[in-house]
Amino acid sequence: MKPAPFEYYAPTTVEEALSHLTEHGYDAKVLAGGQSLIPMMNFRLVQPSALVDLNNIPELSFIRPDENGGLRLGAMTRHHHVEIDPLVAERAPLVHETMPKIAYSQVRSRGTFGGSVSHADPSAELVSLSVALNGRFRLQNQKGERWVPANEFFTGLFTTVLEPDELLVEVALPPMPARSGWSLMEVARRPHDFALVGVVAIVSLDKNNLCQQAQMVFLSAGDVPMVAHKAIELLKGQAPTSEAINASADVAASEDIDPGSDIHATAEFRRHLANVLARRALEQAFKRAADNK
Amino acid sequence: MQNLFDLALTVNGIRYEHTVEPRTLLSDFLRHDLGLTGTHVGCEHGVCGACTVLLDGQPVRSCLLFAIQTHGHEVTTIEGLGTIDNLSPIQEAFQDAHGLQCGFCTPGILTTVKSFLEQNPNPSEDEIREAVSGNLCRCTGYQHIVDAVKLAAEKMRA
Amino acid sequence: MTKKFIGKRIKRNEDPQLLTGQAQFVDDVEIPGMLHAAFLRSDYAHARLLSIDVSNARQRPGVVAVFTAEDMGDDWQPGPPLVSPPPTAKDVIFYSRRQVPLVKDKVRHAGEAIAVVIAESRYIAEDAVEDILVELEPLQAVVDLEKAMEVGSPLVHDDLESNLAAHLFQNKGDYEEAKSKADLVIKRRIVLDRGAAAAMENRGIVAHWEEKSQHLTIWDTTQAPIPIRNGTAARLGLSEHQVRVIAPFIGGGFGPKMMMFYAEELVIPWASKKLSRPIKWIEDRRENFYATTQERGQIHDVEIALSKDGHILGLKDVFLHDTGAYDPYGLTIPLNTQCHAMGGYDVKNFATEVSVVFTNKTLVTPVRGAGRPQGIFIIERLLDIASKELGIDRVEIRKRNLIPLDAFPYEHKIIDQAFAPLILDSGNYWPVMEKALEMIGYDKFIKDEQPRLRKEGKYVGIGFAPFIESTGVGPYEGARVTVEASGKISVATGIGTQGQGHFTSFAQIVAEQLGVEVDDVRIVTGDTTEFHWGTGTFASRGAVVAGNAIHAASTIVRKKILELASKVLETPVDELELEDGLARVADIPNKSISLGELAILANPLRGAVEPGTEPGLEATAYFGPKYGATAFGTHAMILEVDPETMMIKIKRYVTVEDCGTVLNPLILEGQIHGGVSMGIGNAYYEQLHFNENGQLLNASFADYLIPSATEMPRIEVGHIETRSSLNELGTKGVGEAGTIPVPALFAQAIENALYNQELEILEMPLSPNRLFELLSEEKSR
User: Among A160, C94, C206, C215, which residue's Cβ finds the most Cβ atoms within 10 Å?
Assistant: First the structure.
């Protein structure tokens, strides 16, 4: 399983990288961590005629505090570095908690935040997490740059708004709301496999201990991260009782997601799991919110 | 014929200078261009872990790297861990605990374990299993591998 | 003589090489001028080959040759039949159809090889494969076993009337008569599906024909180097001594590497001879899923007749067996299934009928277990159902039926895979089962822990599964043992090694006889130049058959040493002992001579020798058992099921094994652990999913799920030794034991865990998804 030949570029600045992308357009692929791209190239499922390797561009790799209390990450920041960074642990605890669940350690040595997000696999944790956290992405091309909110970035299966001449260069994650709790839960055949179904739940409580804000996004439950709009609506302003949580989980599983069937799970089983996970994740998130006050 | 690129890297402390096609996988470069056949290829899609080497000290899948990407970097393979007459504590522990049978997955496990024990010198059984969960073994059922890692940790702490 | 080496947990001789990356596997072979091969394989499972145009591929720079079936001319021959139908069985139907080197008229399974490219690198070869223009007319694929047997089904082999590949009845006693006397008859349909061996090392072959010396050397990841040598020589019109086959270090065999004359083994040596160049072909993982053999697909209609006190009066098993597109391996797997469907129980009436069916899927040949897991699954499931229906405790019902100690050797009157009458040579079954139940704390768990856990809302089940394993089958193996001038011992035997530790366990056998250290014994396996008589490593027979041949040769060498030493030391033989590499007088330790010196004396460069003697201290011996020894074991497991997600967690896993004399307990444990991990894979993680077009949907490790370290429990291994009377060492095989009872065990444990569901598991493999479906089906009933 050897890849087909390609033109190879190893730019050392973002500008250089962009000029290669502009030149080759759809024929070029960006090489970030390579943990998703190179297997596909080895299988010859993709055969790009040009590869633009971003791994020699130091300016794309950083973890910085944002003045709003959140985080800024360079697109080429390795999962491994995000996993061990104390700033991430402090300002994005849900990201910190999620990192060990991503694939295996050997994959996290190379995989990158921007690479994972640009690949837009609906089973990828960081893809759904960015949406749930209201993250934003800075996209750059030779003409300029634009910020795109995560919930507008993913448009279809493995598809984003990125133009062929555009590069994702930075990720901004806002701080967690006050009095919030969170949870990310997955069901996977083996702990490091892609989830059959997963859910991210982030909730916050108001001073009366009613649900102030809620966010629920499902992994592997549709072509893109599935935001559970109806389920979230049910929770707002409610006391987080088990009845309220169960009702929300039921709606999420039956109306907010669109899972497919494959050899690992039928759509029906995925809906069932989504229901179970939504309930368990909401329970954990609300408990943490109560503890975090 | 593709363009060839100059590649200069250090492997197990030795500097090599070669020219390579960009598409040559690091696993193939190590095995066939450098003759370091200790690193094994099991799947070429990044799941089995047999090809794991250390890149600047971090475990990586050499089947998911192009050799050219290691230009200017340091690679450690199983050949760099010890020799037949001078086994490292990890290698000794694997022999003592019968942590290998056919030995095909073993190089990937040893490099993974080397990096793991550097970061976690006193691991629990669960942590060990988690650490090698990205390395598939079809022969051992993992139990003696786990025992070997515990033993290696002991030897290295002594 | 007290045992010094046999039965000891001795570190392995071969480990330092393997641990330092210095062990040679087939892909490590590099020969100057070596070329690389890649195959064009069919995407369709069933298709007519209309045309093929390789001209573009031939013109690609770096491509040396491209061959199709047509290019092979008269050299194009299907592989040889490997196992004939049983000669002593009555009314056997058998249509032998074997795999071909390259597709000539039609494709019969997805992944079948159509053409081969030989180029300067594998990369270029794969590029050139994409240059080949091939026209295939897709035909309807035969996938489902039952549909394959329907009138009007498309035919896998057009020259046959149906997709029936073989048919065999076997009969013991009179089942219908037994049934007429039964208090209870249970009928069920049991379905088992395919899995792959998925060794970490894919297959590979390097063939080097040297025109000047007229010699062919082949490195092959085979479990059977000697038959490969003999068959390849025959096919290429060479003398067997012109061909050397080396099976170096092999990264796991598990059965499929025992399949011989795969398409690639037919093509690559031929191509090397044609081009007079060394050629390497290394299978990649995707190819492995298509082109390496698989196993386990069967559909059974079973019946068991019992008396009301739970005694088995009779058993009937009518089944379909999926052989894939060809049947080179004969009836081995279904015969094993038949021989294990009675388990270790005293069953006096057994009627069984198998129809082997061709399908448009990858070939089926033995994968660790080789039909035995299916047999054990049947009997254990039926006993569990009987236990419920008769209201007899599930341990008790088995105890009542186990073959008692005084009934051995127990004759079953049906034939086994070696075409011999099935005889269970020895065993002491109940104590093994009892020990397993003791080790897992069965009674206490059922009485105290389980009720408590259930009150807490946990679903934790306990299961156990006794089983037999036929091992150590003939025909024979051989070995040569030689004392060298250095005093070290060199040994050669024909079988190969794929991680079982032969280099150590065999050395222990030799060391025991000759009084040397284990690491002073150098074992060579799998090189036809070193030893060229034998069959291979399969069916849990390596240690038994080759081990006993080595033992026999060692005892002859021991005798030669003692006789020569007796002359040299002028002391009677019975006053001498062999220890520390010396032959010495028992009470006068400094009156000794080293084995090395003796070896030199035995091989003089000058002078006369006694007529009728042989030079050196060397012996070659062969061993062929009268029939295969049967081992017995029991596994037990405590398993928790999350009733919402269907995910499982194994809390405890116990095995007790009786495989006769144990050569090296460390190696034995390793074999059990590994076997159990494959069994757990077979039970809950691994399944090959073919769609209705015969295409494999999970041909990668991302989607074919092998247990990793986080899925495996710690396994507690208990042991009982009932020596086999069939060989001097008293050993039985154990290589497949870990795998055999696991599916039956899982079915029982999951049912026990989900106690408040009406769940009856009659299929394997399972998965969370499938469990969910079964429970949903139950609910809607």
Answer: C206
